[in-house]
Amino acid sequence: MTKKKILSDHKKRGKKLVPPLSEFAISDFSYVTEGIPQIIWYALLNKYYGLRQGTDLASKFGQTIDSLSIKKEVPYHLSWFSDLNAKNYESIKKKLKDIKVFDKINIALSPLLNLYPNCPLNNIFISEEYSESNISDIKEILILLYDKRGKESTFALANVMYLMGMCKKLHIVKNSALADLPELVYYPDTEKSKMIASGIRASTNFLLSPRAIENNQDWVSYFWNRGLEIEPNEI
After folding, report:
1. Is the model's pLDDT at 20 over the cut of 50?
2. What H or E segment, with its residue span, contains residue 13?
3. Could you give phi then psi for residue 101, rounded to 5 degrees?
4. How far is the C-alpha of 57 from the C-alpha of 42, rounded, in Å?
5. What is the pLDDT of residues 101-111, one digit of tens each?
6. Structural domain boundaries of the chain?
7. Measured in Å, how far apart are the chain's first and last C-alpha atoms?
């Protein structure tokens, strides 16, 4: 039997040997810059309705849209909605109204919809002129989401994983911390919940990176630039 040479699975780049897993490195990913704009809608649902109902609404929203088979990818991020056609948007709207979650989601997301008229979800939901309270709501959510290890960020990121699982697009390795995802409700008070949160952060680092999301920069750039338009010196 031929022995495998040490470092034979590494690739040579110039004078450096690069390990195979580095091909999937995402060190250029910024959770704050690129991740928050994609998951802020989860945080708004959780803030308005509480964790249990917010998660339930996000799950029903994502599963309902996934059932329409518009795309192969699960609609877990806002950029997913940026390139649909009018027929797709109308189909989604009708389905959400049929299961009676349209108005509930619309209310919770109103600060985002009102402040960001070009938000992809404005092709589905109804927005109005923004108010000072909308600005305060978004600023509060952003401050909470900046801390990736905080409860708001952790639960918003967990919704990504939960939705993937509910749409049967997430395969969890047996004995993985993510197999006990419901235990996250106790975060950060138990060691188990901290382990789950760590696994979620590692997984969503890839799921929210530009490499995993089409049209990522369109929405992300608009989100931050629009914030500067509203409050140049603060947002």
Report:
1. no
2. strand 11-13
3. -120, -5
4. 9
5. 999 999 999 99
6. 31-212
7. 62
